[in-house]
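> call design_seq(struct)
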């Protein structure tokens, strides 16, 4: 039965703004479900920003999260947080935003295959997580891939689309990087599995390298290793970094470093790689969404980037305290009575 109403809530997490004390008192922020209007923005290498208009009603909530740009740069897959999180596809040519997943559960972490026709993502259909591969052209049901009891999130395809790199959250080893063949009966295998946290694997455009982030130095840093032997590891500078993404040319690597968005030029040598020039492109702020999954996309020409700019709820100006809340709860919901 309902015992309290008028509490501030957030649709991206379902979090209600309330807390209990050890002595049984309740405090909460009055309000309703936050109806945010997150936006998508282009940001060029000089930091100039241009909004991307999303079609929606004035009162419609748009809480956005991970995004993935199709290889041709014409469509953007993005997660919308609602009662059930779903993946939508924004078409730049006609300005439409169409729902792509209909599983009735929470979907997240979309990643385009190189053919631009298939989309990998993670779904939470019940008490477990499952990755799927779905055709975005034509009909057909999503295909489960690499089932596991542990949560798995797709990250990057090889250029030929035959191998998927993904992250597995293991209760013993933490976040690890795995790779596996999409077609046939082949099973995935660990690529980097250590006692540290490894995230955001990204295949280079030639498929010979994987960039990723790890905290093995004591802070999150970006590294590059050869694929498939995981040899020749190089750390990309030493100032910290997260969410590495390759330019389509393969000559630059982008990443986030605190409030700085960085580009690093590189030179390839036999069996190794050298990082030559580092350039801070522009500063980011807290309104640009970040996270452990893909929070930005790189346009094919490497000159613009797509970010999610978060809307902000109204500041909390009042808190309500209810003394002896559990006694009040006993009165509202008496035990043993129907």
């Amino acid at each position: 039965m309902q015992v309290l109403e008028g509490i501030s809530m957030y649709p991206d997490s379902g979090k209600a703004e309330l807390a209990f004390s050890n002595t049984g008192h309740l405090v909460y922020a009055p309000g309703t479900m936050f109806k945010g209007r997150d936006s998508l923005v282009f940001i060029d290498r000089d930091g100039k920003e241009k909004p991307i208009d999303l079609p929606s009603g004035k009162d419609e909530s748009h809480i956005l999260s991970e995004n993935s740009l199709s290889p041709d740069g014409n469509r953007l897959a993005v997660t919308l947080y609602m009662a059930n999180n779903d993946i939508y596809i924004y078409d730049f040519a006609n300005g439409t935003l169409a729902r792509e997943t209909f599983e009735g559960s929470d979907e997240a972490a979309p990643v385009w295959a190189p053919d631009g026709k298939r989309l990998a993502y993670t779904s939470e259909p019940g008490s477990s997580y499952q990755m799927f591969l779905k055709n975005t052209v034509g009909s057909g049901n999503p295909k489960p891939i690499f089932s596991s009891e542990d949560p798995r999130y797709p990250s990057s395809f090889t250029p030929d689309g035959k191998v998927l790199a993904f992250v597995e959250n293991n209760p013993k080893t933490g976040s690890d990087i795995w790779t596996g063949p999409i077609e046939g009966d082949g099973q995935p295998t660990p690529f980097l599995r250590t006692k540290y946290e490894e995230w955001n694997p990204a295949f280079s455009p030639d498929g010979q390298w994987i960039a990723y982030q790890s905290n093995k130095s004591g802070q999150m840093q970006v590294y590059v290793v050869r694929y498939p032997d995981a040899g020749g590891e190089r750390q990309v500078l030493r100032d910290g970094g997260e969410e590495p993404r390759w330019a389509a040319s393969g000559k630059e690597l982008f990443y986030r470093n605190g409030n700085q968005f960085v580009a690093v030029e590189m030179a390839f040598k036999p069996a190794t790689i050298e990082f030559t020039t580092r350039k801070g492109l522009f500063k980011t702020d807290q309104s640009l969404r970040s996270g452990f999954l893909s929070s930005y996309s790189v346009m094919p020409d490497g000159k613009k980037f797509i970010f999610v700019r978060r809307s902000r709820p109204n500041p909390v100006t009042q808190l309500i305290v209810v003394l002896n809340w559990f006694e009040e709860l006993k009165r509202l919901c008496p035990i043993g009575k129907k």
